[in-house]
Design brief:
Length: about 325
């Protein structure tokens, strides 16, 4: 059963920390020297855009916060709280411990007894969504159950069930974490929308964008230019209609960001493909003069961004190339 985490984040110290590692997600290149290989690999798999929002807690005076942190897991819902309301919501993607990384990101906490405590019990999550839910509304959903807001808390199953039900009913629940199971669930939901003749695959597109974009902007995987999110498409590398269910669910590998200013269109039409070494090459389909000029200006001589870190994506680029050649 997914749980709900209550994370106060509006006192001056928390605001500073939030600005450092949530408003400005942390580069995965900066975490590599501080994490064990398994944690770094997991964050890279779950956050292929290359940046990740991070938060942490201390152990607590009696170890109580560490005990709560140990109950957390991927898929849990985080409520960021303060000033009488829930103002952000997100889902946990990974938990890990790293005092060294924590100390590079945030100033240690000075405890009531004068000790210095690291925010070493850390967790990663997808980009938070804006909310404005008064504590009174959450308390109404909880009924006779308490709603702790003074410090980091992991709620009970009963508390979590009521809050999650409220978020779902009010359409305020955050996107699912990027796991194969959740990706399949979102894909199947999209197929149901297709059959009902609603906006085709818009649910899945929103999910892909939420996963690939870690803020208001991102980088095109092909031309490597940065754009605001409204100018980027969450594109399938292998043509979606040719993917089986497992491939559709393989979001970290099968999807990439492509800009609307030419790259997505050329890639979708098979006018460009990716060579085995990652270089972007044109095909015979690229006969239009203006499209050819775009290729020359923005793609000629380029490789796919982070090609050597996209090992799991290579097979999808191969499938795309073979489909169009």
């Amino acid at each position: 059963m997914p749980l709900v985490i209550v994370q106060p984040a509006r006192n001056p110290e928390a605001r500073r920390n939030y600005a450092r590692t949530v408003d400005n997600p942390v580069s995965l290149a900066a975490t590599a020297d501080y994490l064990i290989a398994e944690d770094q690999q997991e964050l890279t798999r779950l956050h292929p855009a290359g940046t990740v929002p991070l938060w942490g807690t201390t152990a607590g005076e009696r170890g109580q916060l560490k005990t709560r942190w140990e109950r957390m897991g991927s898929g849990d819902t985080i409520l960021f709280t303060g000033a009488g309301e829930v103002f952000k919501v997100a889902r946990v993607t990974h938990t890990f411990r790293s005092p060294d990384l924590a100390n590079t990101l945030w100033e240690p906490k000075i405890t009531a007894n004068g000790h210095s405590a690291s925010w070493e019990y850390m967790y990663a999550f997808n980009q938070p969504m804006d909310l404005a839910i008064p504590y009174t509304r959450i308390q109404e959903a909880l009924g006779d159950l308490p709603f702790p807001t003074r410090e980091f808390s992991v709620l009970s199953t009963a508390q979590s069930e009521r809050i999650l039900a409220y978020l779902q009913e009010s359409a305020q629940e955050p996107p699912l974490p990027p796991t194969p199971a959740s990706s399949r669930q979102m894909t199947w939901t999209s197929e149901e929308f297709d059959r009902a003749y609603l906006a085709k695959r818009r649910t899945e597109q929103a999910y892909l964008r939420q996963f690939l974009l870690t803020g208001g902007s991102g980088q095109c995987a092909l031309c490597a230019r940065s754009f605001s999110k409204e100018f980027l498409i969450a594109a399938h590398i292998k043509k979606r209609s040719l993917c089986d269910d497992e491939e559709k669910a393989d979001i970290p590998a099968v999807a990439m960001l492509a800009c609307k200013f030419g790259c997505d269109e050329l890639f979708e039409r098979g006018m460009i493909v990716v060579a085995p070494d990652g270089h972007i090459t044109k095909t015979k389909k690229l006969s239009d003069l203006e499209a050819g000029q775009y290729f020359t200006e923005h793609l000629s001589g380029r490789s796919v961004s982070n090609w050597h870190q996209r090992i799991d994506s290579h097979k999808y680029f191969i499938a795309h190339r073979e489909h169009w050649r």
